[in-house]
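4.2 Preliminary Data

To establish feasibility before requesting continued support, the project team ran the inverse folding procedure on a target of 811 residues. The structure was first converted into the token representation described in Section 3, and no sequence information of any kind was made available to the design step. The complete token record follows.
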């Protein structure tokens, strides 16, 4: 329905804009349309601009830098692998001397439907590698898998699918698949370790021989688990299941290393399983593991992968999610581990959209937008809260303190998520974001020979580098944002983008062929998988034997932690001091009013009855500025840089003139965590209420503490009369009578989130009373009585410290 109306509107706007062209054209910029109406003409213009940026950069690469891996866009020379120093892993991990830019860019040309160019580039790849990848380069297995192997596979799919515009038919001999097989065979020995987890690097010519310990000892979980995606595609295309079996075993093994909270560590030793970083989150080192769990579930129609996604996403929502971002937390305690987020986490909203979680995606993506507003790009790392006192610092010192990593190499993640959100909502808000980024690319990032990132966001110093993902991802997603009718959007092929934006799909015929004809017979891999599986069994039996006498669940009995700013025990106080960010105030007093611009009675606005949902109906569009005002600091040189969502022209056309912004609340919010052994189960009712029949598993409930006349999370003033009607007496015990006058309460609690899910103003949580007490030993032997920590009044409200939580009912 939404699509239908929107298309109708766009047609309408198109005609209106035609009428207006004579006077509204922006002739000074050589365009014959009125910008920010997003008419077909305007979108074509944007698409062409993206294409020009792409082709200019690619042509320069081919002319100047080919057959090396990259082109330096400012100095206009090739960026090569560091042949002199094989230990320079920062350079050499992705530059295998295998024309990275050319191969990674192949499918962007396919997405442009440019068959001639596609054919020319495929032939060039074929000519370049007559002997496959017999190159003496030690490279990163994961990076090579996503940038080279995935690109070859995806381009092969385009070349061989008659339904695609760039289908090559007789002009193609399968050379890309041959190369993919050759490369896959060179990478796969990385999985021949005693654990079945891959070492991070391998030499394309000599394999594992001669690799020094420092090159192979630490691998991150994304790199350990994710090759499964591209390698399974390779199996599907060849019927040789060894690629799938070896890499899928590694994926499953990685997942088995999660903590009780279902949180994965960031990196470990693939030979010993020793964990190097017990931190979990959604950013660098770990990002794609979630991505490939969900995308793999869809592409391969795989329920087990979906469960991995489901459980890991639930764990992230419980343990790492804050309203606007996912923080890095300790994998065993879920305590906040770092005060920063990194740029790569901007991909997550795209994944949430794939999961159908549009509201959550909207929130997370706005964080990236505000970062772009502030820094003109997404800093590699940004402190969302200060990690040291900031008082007395001048602007440049402040910017320095809040950007632990200060570069932006034109990564795609923000534009990728913007693209997904536009596909899901059709809100012009996202087209505006794209138009803004496109303008930035042309004016701030374009250099003599290509697109260059920013080396130092603090000063705006450009970076003389164009990584291959700029052409394969950043520009592809930007183009697709403006190309509603691209064949990718019209197909029934269930196309899924790889983490490198390489489109992947499996036809029904191929799927059947693989399930009928798959084989697994290469001795070295068959023997190896037998060996690691036997090892697993042996270890499991040993563990079971040892655990017979121990009480497994003693550690997670009852409530583990209750965070409260008052009445803390000294021990709790110490924890609080050490990890104060975990229970930091989420909201600070203050008002957020849109006052920076005037409303124009514009003639387009009178004619075009369209508005952006996000701009007009999302009441928290400006909350981020308020919450993160301490660390969202604009560098001086960007003082006059536009805040894209209130760009005057966009706002005039797409706001209804009634855009609202809820003032920030004056209340204090805290999280309480209830951990009980067992499996988390719950029921979301149609109206958004939550029904809990058991309390097993982990619940993280955010409670807002509201005093009379406070402004609450939803923008309401708490009227005094409400408080006098509430009962604070625990009907199960006498203990609350001593606390004071039972006829009124000094403040109340209200639940605003549960396990990362937002509750609306009218939502309640209903808990089965029986879930509060367990007299029986169960799932590991724990008995509990949650009433020791809570209470219950006669109106069935749950009481915390004898204070009613007004929307949690025990029945
Ligand atoms: C790309 O190679 C891929 O998107 C990967 O998943 C993360 N890093 C870069 C882009 O930032």
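Position-by-position output of the design step:
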């Amino acid at each position: 329905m939404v699509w239908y109306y929107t298309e109708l509107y766009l047609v309408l706007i198109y005609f209106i804009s035609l009428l207006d062209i004579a006077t509204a054209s922006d002739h000074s910029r050589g365009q014959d349309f009125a910008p920010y109406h997003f008419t077909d003409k305007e979108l074509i213009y944007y698409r062409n601009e993206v294409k020009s940026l792409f082709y200019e950069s690619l042509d320069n690469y081919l002319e100047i830098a080919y057959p090396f891996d990259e082109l330096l866009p400012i100095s206009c020379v090739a960026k090569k692998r560091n042949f002199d120093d094989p230990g320079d892993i920062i350079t050499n991990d992705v530059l295998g001397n295998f024309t990275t830019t050319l191969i990674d860019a192949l499918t962007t040309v396919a997405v442009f439907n440019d068959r001639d160019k596609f054919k020319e580039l495929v032939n060039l790849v074929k000519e370049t590698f007559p002997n496959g990848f017999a190159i003496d380069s030690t490279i990163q297995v994961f990076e090579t898998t996503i940038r080279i192997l995935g690109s070859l596979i995806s381009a092969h799919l385009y070349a061989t699918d008659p339904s695609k515009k760039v289908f090559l038919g007789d002009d193609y001999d399968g050379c890309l698949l041959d190369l993919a097989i050759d490369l896959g065979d060179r990478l796969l020995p990385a999985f021949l370790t005693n654990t079945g987890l891959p070492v991070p690097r391998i030499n394309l010519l000599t394999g594992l021989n001669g690799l020094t310990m420092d090159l192979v000892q630490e691998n991150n979980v994304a790199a350990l688990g994710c090759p499964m995606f591209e390698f399974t595609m390779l199996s599907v295309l060849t019927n040789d299941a060894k690629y799938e079996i070896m890499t899928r075993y590694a994926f499953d093994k990685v997942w088995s290393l999660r903590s009780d909270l279902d949180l994965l560590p960031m990196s470990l030793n693939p030979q010993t399983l020793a964990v190097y970083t017990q931190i979990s989150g959604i950013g660098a080192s770990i990002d794609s593991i979630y991505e490939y769990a969900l995308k793999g579930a869809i592409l391969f129609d795989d329920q087990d992968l979906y469960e991995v996604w489901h459980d890991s996403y639930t764990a992230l929502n419980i343990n790492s999610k804050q309203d606007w971002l996912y923080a890095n937390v300790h994998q065993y305690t879920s305590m906040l581990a770092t005060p920063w987020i990194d740029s790569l986490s901007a991909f997550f909203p795209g994944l949430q959209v794939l999961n159908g979680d549009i509201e959550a995606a909207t929130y997370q993506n706005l964080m990236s937008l505000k970062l772009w507003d502030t820094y003109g790009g997404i800093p590699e790392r940004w402190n969302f809260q200060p990690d040291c006192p900031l008082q007395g610092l001048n602007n440049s010192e402040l910017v320095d303190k809040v950007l632990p990593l200060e570069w932006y190499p034109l990564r795609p993640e923000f534009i990728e998520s913007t693209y997904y959100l536009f596909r899901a909502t059709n809100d012009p808000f996202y087209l505006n974001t794209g138009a803004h980024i496109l303008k930035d690319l042309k004016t701030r990032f374009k250099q003599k020979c290509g697109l260059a990132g920013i080396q130092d966001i603090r000063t705006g110093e450009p970076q003389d580098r164009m990584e291959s993902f700029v052409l394969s991802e950043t520009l592809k997603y930007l183009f697709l944002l403006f190309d509603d009718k691209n064949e990718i959007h019209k197909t029934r092929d269930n196309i899924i983008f790889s983490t490198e934006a390489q489109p992947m799909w499996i036809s029904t015929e191929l799927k059947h062929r693989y399930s009928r004809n798959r084989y697994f017979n290469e001795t070295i891999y068959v023997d190896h998988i037998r060996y690691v599986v036997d090892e697993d069994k042996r270890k499991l039996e040993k563990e079971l034997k040892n655990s017979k006498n121990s009480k497994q669940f003693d550690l997670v009995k009852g409530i583990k932690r209750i965070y409260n700013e008052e009445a803390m025990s000294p021990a709790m106080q110490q924890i609080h001091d050490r990890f104060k960010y975990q229970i930091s105030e989420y909201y600070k007093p203050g008002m957020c009013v849109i006052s920076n611009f005037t409303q124009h009675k514009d003639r387009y606005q009178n004619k075009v009855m369209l508005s952006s949902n996000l701009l007009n109906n999302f009441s928290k569009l400006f909350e981020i500025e308020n919450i993160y005002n301490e660390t969202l600091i604009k560098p001086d040189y960007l003082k006059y840089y536009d805040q894209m969502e209130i760009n005057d022209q966009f706002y005039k056309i797409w706001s209804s003139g009634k855009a609202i912004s809820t003032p920030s609340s004056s209340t204090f919010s805290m999280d309480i965590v209830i951990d009980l052994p067992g499996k988390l189960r719950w029921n979301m009712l149609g109206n958004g209420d939550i029904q809990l029949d058991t309390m097993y598993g982990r619940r993280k409930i955010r409670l807002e503490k509201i005093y009379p006349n406070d402004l609450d999370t939803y923008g309401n003033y708490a009227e005094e009369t409400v408080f006098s009607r509430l009962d604070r007496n625990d009907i199960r015990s006498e203990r609350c009578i001593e606390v004071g006058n039972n006829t009124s309460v000094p403040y109340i609690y209200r639940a605003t989130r549960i396990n990362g899910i937002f509750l609306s103003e009218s939502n309640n949580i209903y808990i089965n009373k029986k879930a509060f007490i367990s007299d029986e030993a169960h799932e590991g032997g724990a008995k509990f009585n949650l009433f020791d920590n809570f209470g219950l009044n006669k109106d069935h409200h749950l009481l915390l410290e004898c204070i009613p939580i007004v929307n949690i009912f025990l029945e």
